[in-house]
Amino acid sequence: MTRTQARTDAYANELRAVARHLGRRRFLTVTGAAAALAFTVNLPSAGTAAAAELDARRITENPFTLGVASGDPLPGSALLWTRLAPRPYEAGGGLPADTRVTVRWELAHDERFTRGLRRGTTVAHPEFDRAVHVEVHGLAPGRDYFYRFLAGDWSSPVGRTRTAPAPGARATGLKLAAVSCQAYHDGYFTAYRHLADEDLDVVFHLGDYLYEYAVNATGGARAYTDRRLPDVFDRETLTLEDYRLRYALYKSDPDLMAAHAAHPFAVTWDDHETENNYAGDVPENDVPPEEFLIRRAAAYRAYWENQPLRRPQRPTGPDMKLYRRLRFGRLAQFDILDTRQYRSDQAYGDGWRTPGPESEDPARTLTGATQERWLLDGWRASRATWNVVPQQVVLSERRSVPTTAYKLSMDSWDGYPASRQRILAGAQAAGIENLMVLTGDVHVAYALDIKADFRDPASRTVGTEIVATSITSGRNGSERPSNHDDLTRANPHLRFYNGRRGYVTVALGEDSARADFRTVASVTTPGAPVVTAASFVTEAGRPGLTPA
Question: Residue range 70-74: average pLDDT?
Answer without folding.
Answer: 98
